[in-house]
Write a structure and sequence with these properties.
The protein contains 10 helices and no strands. It is mainly α. The longest helix has 25 residues. The chain starts with a helix and ends with a helix.
Length: 172
């Protein structure tokens, strides 16, 4: 497993032709280097877990993803994050782990209160009026997810601006 991870670390990611295949304009060199850095950090963390425990499991991968998504990764745009995540998924699958189970668990954890709050702010700052149907729909979606995260109703009201009655009417 370690040799497999070291080989993945040596691979040159984000070659010019790969950007074209994905239909993207290449990000600046600095951003591409940061994207590679996040992939290498993921691989290094996986190697470290294997050296300590003799293996790597789903919980280890999820812990690594949580840690890395708090760093430089959060500064990438959507396409860059998606591409890095695709590479992580490829590496995880190569390790023989069930990427679908990890993604399902990781995605529910990823939809944390802070993530939802920040995303809602970004949507509101995109120029939509607060009574715009798109904003209302998104607030409802955020409220549903926060409810499923067992977030207290007071926090959901503060984050979304919806009333307790509006939130109560939402089905999960």
């Amino acid at each position: 497993m370690i040799n497999q991870l070291l080989a993945a670390k040596e691979k040159l990611y984000f070659k010019p032709e790969e950007w074209e295949i994905r239909g993207l304009n290449p990000s600046p060199d600095e951003t591409q280097n940061e994207m590679r850095q996040v992939i290498h950090e993921f691989i290094d963390l996986a190697i470290e877990k294997i050296k300590i425990k003799g293996k790597i499991g789903e919980d280890d991968i999820i812990d690594n993803l949580k840690l890395l998504k708090k760093g430089i990764y959060s500064n990438f745009d959507t396409e860059e994050r998606e591409w890095v995540s695709d590479i992580w998924a490829e590496i995880i699958s190569d390790l023989g782990l069930d990427i679908n189970k990890i993604e399902e668990r990781e995605w529910s954890d990823f939809l944390s209160t802070d993530m939802l709050k920040n995303t809602l702010k970004e949507v509101e700052n995109a120029g939509f009026k607060s009574n715009d149907p798109t904003i209302l729909l998104f607030k409802q979606t955020v409220a549903r997810q926060l409810k499923s995260n067992n977030e207290p109703i007071e926090n959901i009201i503060n984050i979304t601006g919806l009333t307790e009655e509006e939130i109560g009417k939402l089905s999960e």
